[in-house]
Amino acid sequence: MNSPAPQFQHTGTSTDELERLGIDRRAWSRAVGFIEDLCQRDVIPAVGWIVGRGGEISSPHVCGRSRIAENSQPIAADAIFLIASITKPIVAMAVLQLVERGEILLSDKVTRYIPEFGKNGKYGISIRHLLTHTSGLPDMLPNNRELREQQQPMSKFVEEICAIKPDFPPGRGVQYQSTGFGILGEIIGRVSGKGCPDYLRDEIFQPLGMHDTALGAPEAWFEGPSPKVDRIAELRLPEEQQGTNWHWNTRYWRMLGAPWGGLLTTLSDIARFAEMLRQGGEFDDVRILSSQSLVAATTNQLAGFPDLKESDRRGRAWGYGWRLHWPGFSPNFGDLLSPYSFGHWGATGTVLWVDPAINGFAVVFTTQPQEPHGRELAQISNVLAAAWVS
Q1: 272 near 209, Cβ under 8 Å?
Q2: What are the sequence ranges of the domains in the chain?
């Protein structure tokens, strides 16, 4: 069977634009050809990317189809993607806003805001532990699948996280934990007096002009003759999700708004967020975070935990929500970023990175799940990074 032909939407990468971005024309052409070939061979059903450097942001570029079916329409430049775990550092930036406003301290115990969280040996877990994946909480709940099959609300997930026992004492190890960001979302809600999705909308997305971004699709996205939800790119599902009532393409998951992975956004919207990061917390004369907060968020915070293995502190560094440079580790971010780079990936096949050494960023969204290796994301990161002129 022949693979479906890609649909590539070239949305304005003129010679002038490439020059403004400091991009080599031939290297960019090679990068575009490489990405198109991934779609041509159906390695990835659809991919979109956008880059920025020195205050200039490229046009969004897309290749492939909007649905998994081979006869579906080509994906549009304003397609909405479920970006999975890139949600985490965005939630972390909301937590730092509350720190800046004097509402919380990172050393505060979680129980100060969620008293019921202290069950089963979790009293010592602080907000800082949650932000740095050092809490000892598991990535997912043991009954995660059952909760999704029952289509439980986020409040039920929080209740279950509060009841579990951690795998190790806080600060004694590094273990990636989505459950911890579920708790951070709850803290944001309780401290601010509004749900985490509303807080992100009011304090980050609307000020940045991110009008097609939401933590969980609101009801309004499903209404009208041309509902916004129709712009959401369909994901090729991993085997364990196929045939379920809770997979990534269902209305249930799109609306759940999981603080660890439920953000829906476009390339153009997330580029505004990435440019805010590159500029040290400000975009279009709107300050979202102080430069001090961004420095803290993108500094290796594991250095402050004396009981961690030295290999974790040096080789698997985390800031507050942001994965920092991991030497000798290619998945998702590739091989060419500087030691100063930071970013995050998403299980749905997404990656965002900022590299201060080149004063730029790149965002890649696909509809092909990449875990555990993120090979295609790493390859795309490499060809895009190589296009920049020093």
Answers
A1: yes
A2: 80-263
Question: 3-state DSSP helix/strand/coil percent for the chain, to nearest 5?
Answer: 40, 15, 45
Burial (Cβ within 10 Å: 0-12, 13-18, ≥19) of residue 117: buried
pTM of the predicted structure, to 2 decimals = 0.96
Identity of the residue numbered 35: I
Q: How confident is the model at residue 240 (pLDDT cuts 50, 70, 90)?
A: very high
- Does residue 372 have a cis bond before it (omega within 30 degrees)? yes
Euclidean distance between CA atoms 320 and 131, whole angstroms: 5
Q: Which long-range contacts (CB under 8 A, 24 or more apart) does 294-298 make?
A: 296/96, 296/320, 297/89, 297/92, 297/93, 297/96, 297/321, 297/322, 298/322, 298/324, 298/342
User: Could you tell me how far CA 32 lies from the centroid of its own chain?
Assistant: 23
pLDDT, tens only, 154-178 = 999 999 999 999 999 999 999 999 9
Report the candidate in 268, 324, 330 with the shortest Cα–Cα distance to residue 49.
268
Tell me the C-alpha distance between 262 and 279, whole Å.
26
The residues facing 142 across adjacent strands are none
Structure tokens at 327: 């030497």
- Length of the chain in terms of residues written: 390
Q: What is the pLDDT of residue 371?
A: 76
Distance CA 39, CA 47 (A): 8
- Superfamily (CATH H level) for 80-263: DD-peptidase/beta-lactamase superfamily (3.40.710.10)
